[in-house]
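Internal ticket #5521
Category: modeling
Description: The requester needs a full-assembly model to guide mutagenesis choices. All entity lines are attached below as received. Residue total reported by intake: 617.
Assigned to: D.W.
Attached entities:
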Amino acid sequence: MPTAATHQAGTGLDRLSEQLDKAGFAALVLTSPGGRRYALGRTPGLADGTAVLLTTEGTVTSAAGDLPTAITAVLRAGGVAGGVVGAEADLPWEVFGQVSQAGVRLRPAADLVFTELASGEPGEPGELAAVAAAADLAAVGYTAVMDHLHVGMDVRELSGNVDRSIRRAGGLLGWYDPYGMTGRAAGSDLVTVRGHDPGTARLTAGTPVRFVLHPLLEGVAGYAAATAVLGEPDGPLRAAGAACAAATASLLAALRPGAPLRDGREAFDREAGEHAAACRIVALRGGGASLPLPRDSEVTAEPGMVLGVRTEVTVPGRGAVELAETVVLTDSGAEPQARTPLRLVELH
Amino acid sequence: MDTSLPSGAGRVPTADAGGRTMPLLGFGTHPLRGDQATEAVLTAFSVGYRLVDTATRYRNEAAVGTALATTSLPRSELFVTTKMPPDQVGRERLTLEESLAALGCDYLDLWLIHWPPGGYPGVTSWREFIRARDEGLVRAIGVSNYPVELIDALHEATGEYPAVNQVRWGPGNHDPEFAEAMRRRDVLLSAHSPLRGTDLDHPVLADVARRHGRSARDVVLAWNLHHKVAVTVKSAHRDRMERNLSAVDITLTPEDIGAINGLSGVAPA
């Protein structure tokens, strides 16, 4: 049985506790990296765990270990012996079985968590500036990649270029924590690169090079992705690039205050048409990306929300065109922060 | 001449850049943004700089444009350089129009391809650059961070060499063969990051600086000017701007030049 640690939640989680109460939950189980970081980030001294429990009384409990036993442990340590507990994600049946035996019912609370992680705390004027700065740092990384791409380049050089540039720009090199398991992990600000020959790690012409950047700046993660082709794209690649650009633009245009966020997903799907395409919208406050917005989400777009938008159109047999951007919702709609090109970049 | 101008102002040497007279010492604006960039450019103008160097990538063209609109200096006395990033292949005219609008200019004095797109010469873009120059939207066109072979490829494809090639250049990466290759092609060599890659504490620089009563930094700028290399320097501080500009008053001896040339870490071909 994992050991659980319980602390009183800071004032930063007051609003979330109130929302739990309003929704009829006795507590909330957070299992995503973004959700855990959001809760634990306000309770210094606690290591990230597999499960975090926030109660309406304002206590935060965390436990590491395998998911079912960790959840059971935080429920017990958090004093939740019965009632309804919100869960932010679809959980495996083992969890439901184990938790049911304890007399607790789990109900989905994905929208509640997403809204919290997208909206952040009122009265934190510096947070949007921090988001913009982190997105700007992602743009620095983008430049470090895009300016140096060439056929035959070893992709490991790209990581070095990105890390050097981001460090010079004030980024925190090498503390990327994709899964929130250990609190901190050595890594690169350049999270993934695709489009190279796997046998040689070298870039090739004709295959789209796509890369994702999540640099950290003062606890805020930048969020951007871009795709380039080293040469003039052929018909299928050009078509995929155009489709991804148009569908991404439609998604962003649909993120209007007062409208459901799922409108963005639906606009993307309509514009992508017959292409093999996918998109996700994540909440970015709290130090990392949340779980993607569920398809049936009822979350409404509100000014001040900080979202990550990631889109992809597959090129049959050739990978994909992939784009991502950090956006802040304002009264007039979605404002891109990294401002990297939301289109297939041609380099020739 | 304004007698209140500091040492060096008004005596900045110039060179021909594609038929346009280009000051060899200019004010670089990266990574300044917003009001800080506007104020820095205005201060640089008041100190005596007449060349301002920006780029689409720097995201400060509008701030530089505010300074251009605010200064009492006539546009004809100023030299405005900006650069198109390599990810704008196929969107050259749009990029130029956005730069002109942000800067509030009818024309640019110099427009550069910021990096070789994908490591290629960028012939598609270069043709558009030539068209923009021929239509009077830019006075001179050039490149940045280009090796000799890519410059030759542009010439081979279009019959036109760039007027300027802006590269990282300083005593630490001084390459006489590259400089000579640029000179033979009538390409003006321009230095960005002139101090990066050079050990400013090196005894050779320290000795030259001591004998001239200046800093190693000043000596590096003077060394570039001696070689007729255009150099952009950046600082948001007036006193540093003045000191950089005063490097035009330093006359290095042939022995000084030879010693500084010897600091290069570039191996002869």
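Resolution: model delivered.
Comment from assignee: Strands of chain B lie at 14-17, 20-23, 25-28, 51-53, 79-84, 108-113, 138-144, 164-168, 188-192, 230-233.
Ticket closed.
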